[in-house]
């Protein structure tokens, strides 16, 4: 079995950089957050703001696979990849580096978005028949997965990947989500599991802001890449108290399957949305800034 750097200690926090300080430094990567199923950009404000305070530009994608059932039924995760690639493209053109943060389903989108566009891959590319190489600059520096059922191998769907990693265990969200006519709908009481153990008021507000319907097709579309094949630094946040999507055991298997480029961070007491737990937020910010700065 491939050995990972596995850490559950407090990550080093980045100091807030004063305006105009350290101008000689390499520009900080832009951070693009990719939401999980049923989640909107507003859900990630608590994670985005501390990163901005540390001097990072942060963008949060608005995905196409959730919303009105008739509008989303035929949407696959590839439609969401196109959306995130559109956010990524200006940074590539400017030679800037980017860190992708994929929450839950967003990890599947992050992997396919990054494939072929990593800093390593863009570092030297053929320029023509003479075989010369050109340094393009910029690209995806790292991918952070948060409690994500990201597939580790190319050509399989999120659903197939989860079935493989579950090793026969029933899905954690069984009874919390209903599948009907190509749409996955969260139950009225789903908030208790989706955001537990976050504060009840915070959990209810987050659930009220969610889109209740998500395209089933996005869970069945085959990945164009596997996380273990990405030529970038990877980090996986194991939410050890997740009651919604993935048991901790499955999360560990996914992280281990990503290979030696992946560092696993075990968050004891973390639910499916750990940034909503104030006691865990600084450490989560540290995971993101850690891969952005190292």
Automatic annotation (TrEMBL):
Segments of skewed composition (Basic and acidic residues): 1-12
Domain of life: Eukaryota
UniProt xrefs under Pfam families: Abhydrolase_6
All copies of domain AB hydrolase-1, residue ranges: 31-280
Listed InterPro entries: AB_hydrolase_1 (IPR000073), AB_hydrolase_fold (IPR029058), Sec-Metab_Biosynth_Hydrolase (IPR052897)
Region Disordered: start-end pairs: 1-22
Record's protein name: AB hydrolase-1 domain-containing protein
Organism annotation: Pyricularia oryzae (strain 70-15 / ATCC MYA-4617 / FGSC 8958)
